[in-house]
């Protein structure tokens, strides 16, 4: 049984369709990317998955069953708008939330201590939330979403407000939870995080699914139109080659836009005839490029 199955869900607010027939499945041990421009329908989809709002049409199942209070206990949610009480002590707040999700106070305290150690901030146990920096509050909010060992977790912009060191730390934790079998629905505007963490994704645009599937396979469907060339010296005449549309010169070499892979072999021939080539690579499109393209295409 899949932890999470969303089938053709539709949600309307008055005559505005916020989500128009979205289907997706998240496996155990998978981080699933949910992407889309502002207003695309991501939050509405996540709220339906959480049972906070009901779909007008379609179905959502959790390990093959419809929504119930038991399902709520096996879910965790990191909302984009953080919602901790500033004046309440971290330990009181998190153990309270954990108890609401069905675990004993003793287990909650033990789990919290373990999590604070994992995040290298054990001293926060007795601190009030308002005493912590924004990034450190974010760690506490993350702990709140996983303290009860949920089987399905929804992470909305999990890394926002964190410095690069803390982003890496939280990424490490997210990967560990994935490897332990958690199913995660991961929504973000940061494509590089999706690229690194997710196997499958859905891109929504104006309430519709515009692109969906395995990220590696999706990338293979798009042409390779960028060449990275690193050389010891100058290469003259790149702009004049057939199929080359743009040449950017950098300290270490060139980034070149091409219309097809034939142009790539002309580039390497020209470069080796003039200087030492240190790196030559015809790049796959980035997820960022694919996102802009698919959202752009659906605009048209
Ligand atoms: N409670 C509501 N009442 C009316 N319209 C709503 C409501 N919630 C969302 N919408 C509309 O539904 C559409 C989808 O909104 P949603 O919040 O799901 O987008 P999103 O993808 O999460 O956007 P963002 O990236 O900006 O958070 C938007 O046009 C929004 O204005």
From TrEMBL:
<dbReference type="GO" id="GO:0005524">
    <property type="term" value="F:ATP binding"/>
</dbReference>
<dbReference type="Pfam" id="PF13732">
    <property type="entry name" value="DrrA1-3_C"/>
</dbReference>
<keyword id="KW-0813">Transport</keyword>
<feature type="domain" description="ABC transporter">
    <location>
        <begin position="4"/>
        <end position="231"/>
    </location>
</feature>
<protein>
    <submittedName>
        <fullName>ABC transporter ATP-binding protein</fullName>
    </submittedName>
</protein>
<keyword id="KW-0067">ATP-binding</keyword>
<dbReference type="InterPro" id="IPR025302">
    <property type="entry name" value="DrrA1/2-like_C"/>
</dbReference>
<dbReference type="InterPro" id="IPR050763">
    <property type="entry name" value="ABC_transporter_ATP-binding"/>
</dbReference>
<dbReference type="Pfam" id="PF00005">
    <property type="entry name" value="ABC_tran"/>
</dbReference>
<dbReference type="InterPro" id="IPR003439">
    <property type="entry name" value="ABC_transporter-like_ATP-bd"/>
</dbReference>
<dbReference type="InterPro" id="IPR003593">
    <property type="entry name" value="AAA+_ATPase"/>
</dbReference>
<dbReference type="InterPro" id="IPR017871">
    <property type="entry name" value="ABC_transporter-like_CS"/>
</dbReference>
<keyword id="KW-0547">Nucleotide-binding</keyword>
<dbReference type="InterPro" id="IPR027417">
    <property type="entry name" value="P-loop_NTPase"/>
</dbReference>
<comment type="similarity">
    <text>Belongs to the ABC transporter superfamily.</text>
</comment>
């Amino acid at each position: 049984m899949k932890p999470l199955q969303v089938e053709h869900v539709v949600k309307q607010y008055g005559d505005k369709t916020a989500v128009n027939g979205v289907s997706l499945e998240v496996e155990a041990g998978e981080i699933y990317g949910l992407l889309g421009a502002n207003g695309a329908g991501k939050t509405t989809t996540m709220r339906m998955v959480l049972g906070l709002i009901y779909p007008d049409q379609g179905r959502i199942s959790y390990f093959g069953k419809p929504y119930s209070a038991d399902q709520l206990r096996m879910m965790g949610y990191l909302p984009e708008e953080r919602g901790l009480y500033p004046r309440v002590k971290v330990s009181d707040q998190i153990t309270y939330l954990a108890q609401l999700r069905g675990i004993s106070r003793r287990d909650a305290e033990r789990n919290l201590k373990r999590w604070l150690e994992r995040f290298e901030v054990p001293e926060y146990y007795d601190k009030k939330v308002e005493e912590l920096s924004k990034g450190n509050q974010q760690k506490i909010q993350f702990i709140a979403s996983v303290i009860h060992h949920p089987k399905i977790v929804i992470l909305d912009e999990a890394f926002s407000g964190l410095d690069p060191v803390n982003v890496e730390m939280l990424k490490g934790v997210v990967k560990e939870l994935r490897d332990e079998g958690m199913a995660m629905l991961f929504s973000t505007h940061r494509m590089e995080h999706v690229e690194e963490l997710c196997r499958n994704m859905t891109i929504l645009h104006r309430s519709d699914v515009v692109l969906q599937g395995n990220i590696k396979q999706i990338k293979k469907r798009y042409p390779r139109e960028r060449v990275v060339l690193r050389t010891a010296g100058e290469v003259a005449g790149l702009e004049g080659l057939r199929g080359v549309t743009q040449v950017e010169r950098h300290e270490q070499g060139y980034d070149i836009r091409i219309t097809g892979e034939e142009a790539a072999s002309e580039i390497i021939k020209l470069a080796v005839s003039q200087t030492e080539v240190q790196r030559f690579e015809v790049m796959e499109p980035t997820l960022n490029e694919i996102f802009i393209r698919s959202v752009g295409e659906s605009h048209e």
